[in-house]
């Protein structure tokens, strides 16, 4: 199939592009480079041995986005593009609604106009808010505690409405838990601009000496070591979930909401220790008061992904940290 991948030069998008090309799909990437850089395209070419077809276009730029649709006969879309920092979304809600919702509407309008009826949407476990219990199942109520999460719920609702209106429409909203890790080559991985919002990139910057310590937000939760527990999933496992979901759209009409997670949780200190082992570096840390809105434990029930997509995780925390460190170490060498 010929697939449009929005945000395809970003962290999860780039790993998915590698697997799409390995599965003999044809790929066109659209990215505005807001949280990545153009040199990722060359790294993708180095990994895959294939030419990388990409356009630097913002989804809010409807006219240039339409030109891409005019010039290509797409079979489906994998939609990663969007802003994702929870704290920033609280400070700049309009920016998030514009980038994540308005841009998605532009994309969906053009899909309708050019009769593209398959979409895999990059959603988030954030849509569950503070869940009533764990493991978290797809039929739990959705409730966002911040504008970022609201944008994910809004786009999910839009997709559900389109699925009712268009009987040929096939949409799968993949609700990610916490992606970590990097490609085994060490060429691509998570390299956020500015202060990392996610735990492992922050730990990586402590390991390289870019930051002097890890901030641990609370050690008085009802968990084994008192720190927050989250479901971490290797980005390669996450990418494979998109390939499986794309295959599933060939035999499915309507919309499905599917968790992608390991189905178990690791605490902040467990992740810190695993990264210290992988990097052979000390990770200094300090305990801070809990952050407002943080919850003690969150991990997925991933049975639906196994049932519908024949998907489950292949990599454990040690491999996630080893791959993350290899990428971080390579990045540090490139910057010297």
Cα shape: globular
Output the CATH class name of the domain at 2-180 and 232-263. Answer: Alpha Beta
| Tally of alpha and pi helices | 11
> How much of the sequence is in beta strands?
15-25%
Termini, distance in Å?
41 Å
**Helical coverage, percent range:** 40-55%
Mean pLDDT over all positions? 95
Which ranges are low-confidence, i.e. pLDDT below 50, for 5 or more consecutive residues? none
Secondary-structure element order, N to C = EHEHEHEHHEHEEHEEEHEEHEEHH
Largest sheet: 7 strands, parallel
Could you tell me the CATH topology label of the domain at 2-180 and 232-263. Answer: Rossmann fold
Q: How many beta-strand elements? A: 14
Structural class: alpha/beta
Q: Please list the strands of the largest sheet in the order they lie side by side.
A: 3-2-1-4-5-6-11
Please identify which CATH superfamily of the domain at 2-180 and 232-263 we are dealing with.
NAD(P)-binding Rossmann-like Domain
Radius of gyration: 19 Å
CATH architecture of the domain at 2-180 and 232-263: 3-Layer(aba) Sandwich
Q: How is this structure best described in words?
A:
With 336 residues, the chain is an alpha/beta fold. It has a domain at 2-180 and 232-263: Rossmann fold (3-Layer(aba) Sandwich). Helices cover 41% and strands 18% of the residues. It is built from eleven helices and 14 strands. The protein has helices spanning 11-22, 39-48, 62-70, 86-91, 93-113, 147-165, 199-207, 235-248, 268-279, 303-309, 317-335, and strands at residues 2-6, 26-31, 53-56, 76-79, 118-124, 170-176, 178-180, 214-217, 229-230, 232-234, 254-260, 266-267, 285-288, 297-298. Helix 2 links the parallel strand 2 (26-31) and strand 3.
């Amino acid at each position: 199939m010929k697939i449009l991948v929005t945000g395809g030069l970003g962290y999860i998008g780039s790993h998915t592009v590698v697997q799409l090309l390995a599965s003999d799909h044809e790929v066109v990437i659209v990215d505005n480079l807001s949280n990545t850089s153009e040199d990722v395209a060359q790294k993708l070419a180095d990994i895959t041995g294939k030419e990388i077809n990409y356009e630097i276009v913002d989804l809010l730029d409807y006219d240039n986005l339409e030109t891409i649709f005019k010039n290509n006969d797409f079979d489906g879309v994998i939609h990663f593009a969007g802003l994702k920092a929870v704290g920033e979304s609280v400070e700049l809600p309009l920016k998030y609604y514009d980038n994540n919702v308005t841009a998605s509407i532009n994309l969906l309008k053009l899909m309708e106009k050019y009769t593209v009826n398959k979409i895999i949407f990059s959603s988030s476990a954030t849509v569950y808010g503070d869940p009533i219990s764990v493991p978290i199942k797809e039929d739990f109520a959705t409730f966002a505690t911040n504008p970022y999460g609201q944008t994910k719920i809004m786009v999910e609702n839009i997709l559900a409405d389109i699925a009712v209106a268009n009987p040929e429409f096939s949409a799968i909203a993949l609700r990610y838990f916490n992606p970590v890790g990097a490609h085994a080559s060490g060429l691509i991985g998570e390299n956020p601009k500015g202060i990392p919002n996610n735990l492992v990139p922050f730990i990586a910057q402590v390991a390289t000496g870019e930051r002097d310590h890890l901030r641990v937000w609370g050690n008085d939760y009802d968990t084994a070591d008192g720190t927050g527990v989250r479901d971490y999933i290797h980005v390669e496992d996450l990418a494979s979930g998109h390939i499986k979901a794309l295959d599933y759209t060939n035999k499915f009409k309507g919309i499905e909401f599917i968790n992608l997670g390991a189905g178990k949780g690791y605490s902040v200190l467990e992740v810190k220790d695993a990264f210290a082992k992988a990097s052979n570096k000390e990770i200094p840390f300090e305990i801070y008061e809990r952050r407002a809105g943080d919850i003690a434990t969150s991990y997925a029930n991933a049975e639906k992904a196994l049932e519908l997509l024949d998907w489950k995780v292949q990599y454990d925390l040690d491999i996630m940290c080893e791959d993350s460190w290899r990428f971080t170490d390579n990045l540090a060498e490139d910057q010297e």
